[in-house]
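Consider the tokenized backbone below.
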């Protein structure tokens, strides 16, 4: 199996059989992320303990295969990690999408590194980064559902 086919298989698996789709009843960070340009709409739920460790997380919503698979892979990667580590991974993911990180530097992204080629499809970049941007907004700014919706349809900062 060539690398491109393997990446496609990973994307399809996370889209069709997501590990983290659902609700986290005791989430203390909840934020809706919207990409109005294509209709992707997710609600990200994170449970962060008093030590800043992400102990659980889920997402709900709808969107294209890339947005759904990307947020699922992101959650697989950040659950069990500190908020700081989750933000570092988000920064690494953004660098990858911008073409600023590749090869061995992407190992920490695990399966999310399979989205590296999205950078060659500008219309799909917003789909791939929606969950990551939403998580960044939550963790950096303490934004929760009660404080509004994060709209990530621009490529500002990309």
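A designed sequence for it:
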């Amino acid at each position: 199996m060539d690398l491109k086919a393997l990446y496609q298989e990973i994307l399809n698996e996370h889209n069709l059989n997501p590990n983290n789709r659902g609700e986290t009843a005791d989430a203390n960070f909840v934020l809706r992320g919207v990409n109005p340009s294509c209709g992707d709409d997710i609600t990200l739920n994170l449970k962060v303990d008093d030590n800043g460790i992400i102990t659980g997380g889920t997402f709900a919503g709808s969107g294209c295969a890339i947005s759904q698979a990307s947020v699922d892979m992101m959650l697989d990667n950040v659950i069990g990690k500190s908020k700081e580590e989750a933000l570092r991974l988000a920064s690494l993911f953004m660098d990858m999408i911008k073409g600023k990180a590749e090869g061995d530097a992407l190992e920490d992204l695990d399966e999310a590194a399979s989205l590296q080629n999205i950078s060659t499809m500008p219309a799909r970049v917003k789909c791939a980064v929606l969950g990551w941007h939403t998580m960044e907004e939550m963790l950096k700014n303490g934004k929760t559902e009660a404080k509004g919706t994060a709209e990530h349809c621009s490529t500002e900062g990309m």
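The mean pLDDT is 87.
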